[in-house]
Design a protein that fits this description.
The chain is of the alpha/beta class. It folds into 2 domains: 264 residues, Aldehyde Dehydrogenase, Chain A, domain 1; 201 residues, Aldehyde Dehydrogenase, Chain A, domain 2 (3-Layer(aba) Sandwich), CATH 3.40.309. It is 36% helix and 20% strand. The chain is built from 15 helices and 21 strands. The chain has a 7-stranded mixed sheet with strand order 14-15-16-13-12-18-19, sandwiched between helices. A hairpin with a 5-residue loop joins strand 5 and strand 6. It is globular and about 85 Å long.
Length: 516
């Protein structure tokens, strides 16, 4: 593989020096050095925000249909480079190649959707309560937006922010995960190739501490008018507090503890297939990964037996091969996941794995695809007997583990589905419409699947959560326009005199005492 050298931040289309230089290695093959990453400082972030703010007026003045045309061109450029971008995703974060292709397709779909929105940034013409007066509404860009994204979806999720933000006339300072700078650099170069001026998107590659300092300085300087963040609930709280001090509204897409309820009438083979994909796809490192399987006591034993067999038979390993999942994204996530394994209690029962923790020569997995010693590979594990008091139930574990709980009544299933306080994604397996609609009404999640997994999103459907999963903001589709625009109202009085609203309103005469 070719090595990518000297990755880092880009301000106004030019690579700039930062602070610490670190080596970037592939988590699927730690011998594969992708390149060196020049991490930015808080000062770099501040400079990028100032540059983006300076470019905003010019970009907003570009007609919206022209901006939409550029988004369409971006989609075609990404499509022309789909395989190369997917291979880079696989190399940089270890996502299986088939999933990486799907991720890049999500970018293409997002561009296709929003390209036409450049001709549909509709306002409204509203009747006035007075004669010779007309009312209008307009969508206006928010201004300059800071976008901070995680690395588990290093190109799809950023596109959910960047594409509609650019379409609406905003400029962006994008801070990707510092462990996924190569795909970020490639995406920004695609944006520039689409004819979008280099200053419209500024790329800052920095660690969390420098990002937080730079974000605070940029907000204090007045350069930023919106913040979008995808990541942990803990960091989301800090960003929300910081934004609140500056009266800036954040868009927060945070963690999940996504329930999958299996009812007595469920198609168990289908439920197992859904649990396998949503629980272990991307090594459990999705915000929509299965957080807890909640299985009715009448089918619990059968479901667990089939689920265990499916996990034991699943291919794990080299992400370039057809596998269920590959490595952890980085050493940080491998370490964090293994800490959660310490929460397995004596009342729990584990299955689906020949071991716990890192897959090594001393802790092997039968049928592993490739050389486990080369990467950050973890054993998948099912933990049965989980209750609402357990840490494995209450917290996002972000790794290849699926806790399983049991219920005997629908109300108990709902309590378990909501009790952890997250509210991103959810699923129910049932053939009873009543159960499906009752679940939709009572679950706290922003997204509900019936007879499908907790994972998966389409570019024209709102994506987002509640509670510890977000602040109610929604991404994707037309709903994202409400995050990247502000409504402006205008009244135009052509009566030639001052008409005072609510004071000079004419009323029809009515006989309210009229009876037949």
């Amino acid at each position: 593989m070719a090595t990518l050298h000297e990755l880092g931040s880009r301000i106004n289309g030019e690579t700039v020096d930062g602070g610490e230089v670190v080596e970037l290695r592939s988590p699927g093959d730690l011998d594969d050095v992708i390149g060196r990453v020049n991490l930015a400082t808080a000062d770099t972030f501040l400079k990028a925000a100032a540059a983006a703010a300076a470019a905003q007026d010019g970009w907003a003045a570009t007609p919206a249909p022209v901006r939409g045309g550029a988004i369409g061109d971006l989609g075609r450029i990404v499509a022309n480079n789909k395989e190369a971008l997917a291979r880079l995703v696989t190399r940089e974060i270890g996502k299986p190649y088939a999933e990486a292709l799907g991720e890049v397709q999500e970018v293409i779909d997002t561009c296709v959707f929003f390209a036409s929105e450049g001709r549909r940034l509709y306002g409204q013409t509203v009747p006035s309560e007075m004669p010779d007066k007309q009312l209008f509404t307009f969508r206006e860009p928010v201004g300059t937006m800071a976008v901070i994204t995680a690395g588990n979806f290093p190109i799809a999720v950023p596109s959910w922010y960047l594409v509609p933000a650019l379409l609406a006339g905003n400029t962006v300072v994008w801070k990707p995960a510092e462990y996924a700078p190569a795909i970020a650099d490639a995406f920004v170069r695609c944006i520039e190739a689409a004819g979008i001026p280099a200053g419209v998107v500024q790329l800052v590659v920095a660690d969390g501490q420098e990002t937080a300092a730079g974000l605070e300085q940029a907000l204090e300087a007045g350069h930023l008018h919106k913040v979008g963040f995808t990541g942990s609930s803990a960091v989301g709280r800090d960003i929300a507090a910081l934004c609140g001090r500056h009266l800036v509204t954040p868009t927060l897409e945070l963690g999940g503890k996504n329930p999958l309820v299996v009812m007595p009438d469920a198609d168990l083979d289908l439920a197992v297939e859904g649990a396998l994909f949503s629980g272990f796809g991307t090594a459990g490192q999705r915000c929509t990964s299965l957080g807890v399987a909640i299985v009715h006591e009448s089918v619990h034993a059968t479901f667990l037996e089939r689920f265990t067999r499916a996990v034991e038979a699943a291919a794990v390993g080299d992400p370039y091969e057809p596998v269920l999942f590959g490595p952890m994204i980085s050493q940080r996530f491998a370490d964090g996941f293994e800490k959660w394994l310490g929460e397995i209690q004596p009342h729990h029962r584990t299955s689906g794995s020949q071991g716990l923790g890192r897959i090594t020569a001393d802790n092997p997995r039968d049928g592993f695809v490739g050389d486990a010693s080369k990467g950050l590979f973890e054993h998948p594990v099912i933990v049965d007997g989980v209750t609402a008091e357990d840490a494995l139930y209450r917290n996002e574990t972000f790794g290849p583990v699926v806790p399983v709980a049991t219920f005997d009544g629908f109300d108990e299933a709902i309590a378990l589905a909501n009790g952890h306080g997250y509210g991103l994604s959810s699923a129910i397996y049932t053939n009873d419409p009543t159960s499906a609609f009752r679940f939709r009404e009572q679950v706290s999640a922003g997204m509900v699947s019936v007879n499908n997994s907790t994972s998966g999103a389409e570019a024209h459907l709102p994506f987002g959560g509640n509670g510890k999963s977000g602040n109610g903001a929604r991404q994707s589709g037309i709903w994202m326009l409400d995050q990247v625009t502000r409504w402006q109202s205008m009244n135009w009085d052509f009566s030639g005199k001052l008409q005072k609203a609510q004071m000079d309103v004419a009323e029809m005469e009515a006989d309210l005492d009229f009876t037949l």
